[in-house]
Amino acid sequence: MCIEKTPWEQVIEFHGHTCPGIALGYRLAQIANRELGTSAALDSGISVTAYTHSCALDAFQIINRATYGRKNLLVEEKKLHVYHFQNVNMSKKILITVHSEILEQIADAEEPLSPREIQTKNLEAIRIILGVEESSFCKIQNVQIM
Ligand SMILES: [Zn+2]
Prior knowledge:
Elements: H1 7-15, H2 20-36, E1 46-50, H3 57-63, E2 73-75, E3 82-87, E4 93-98, H4 100-106, H5 115-131, H6 134-137, E5 138-142
Helix pairs in contact: 1-3, 2-3, 2-5
The site of zinc ion has 6 residues, from helix 2.
């Protein structure tokens, strides 16, 4: 029997590990697909500009089909979890800003933690990132297209 992998499983497999950063990207990617009327199944595509390098980028490559190789995944390093998503026919563009309370979840701990403690902290962060109300997760703004 062949069981198809869920989008979440596909993202984890591609990324190589489960972490709060990929959870963040997964949630952002799902929101972007909904807002822009695109999907991972259709190769309709979104172009993404991220304003920081992080694990989150790999989720966009699977869920939004925005790949680095095709140049529809760009990074401008500003150390900000702010993301522009635009659909390929250029009719709509959104800006998503992740709330700072959420980013505290993915920040490194101030004290050194044991591997066990790190795992517990990561699982809790993933639970929050994937489960929190959208209004507590991020702000979505429509961007005027010139
Ligand atoms: Zn990661």
